[in-house]
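dude i think i finally got it to work??
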Amino acid sequence: MGVAKSKLLSRCRTILRRLRAAYPDSRCALHHDNPLQLLVATILSAQCTDARVNLVTPALFKRYRTAADFAAAPSAELESMIRSTGFFRNKARSIRNCCRAITEKHGGKVPDTLDELIQLDGIGRKTANVVLGVAYGKAEGLVVDTHVMRLSRRLGLTRQTTPEKIERALMKIVPREDWIDFSHLLIWHGRKRCTARRPDCIQCEVADLCPKIGVKLKGDRNERTQGRR
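look at this
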């Protein structure tokens, strides 16, 4: 193992340790009681805040309790119930189609393998990893959402730019037993401290380990130039 790779591994583990201490209660923010509810909530969370999804799902889960219920839901009714999450037609179609497959091919039970999950309509690696990690406690990969994409690059853990490549890069430096927690920790840190536009670098728990890639610091040339316009 090269010196650079060894240092990266060590820094990654230190970041993980500090974030775990900072956010001991980090967990999936989507409210759910079972794998099916988590799957549906994760589909709804695409380009939508978890807070908004959590406002929608109580009535949704009361109305539809099984995969068969979702599969048989009238399109207009389902679309109306999830409209506020955005892209509601596509999301309703994905929910109905994947629940139909769950009902017909998996006996109504959400699959617990990556290969089976990504065969469902509208389910990519991110959603599959959420379900596997949170609902089944299986670490088959890392959840790479917008926060994980942004922070993994900002922290200098990878230079990759696509979710798939970022996931592969992180899988090489994050211990497998920490894959599930690592994504939750980065997501919490991205929401509470290291926001996209105004990161709180002064109070950041990992500031001394962060190269701050992409962060515009006060007084830098870009900010001064923009200030003169």
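The radius of gyration is 20 Å.
im so relieved honestly
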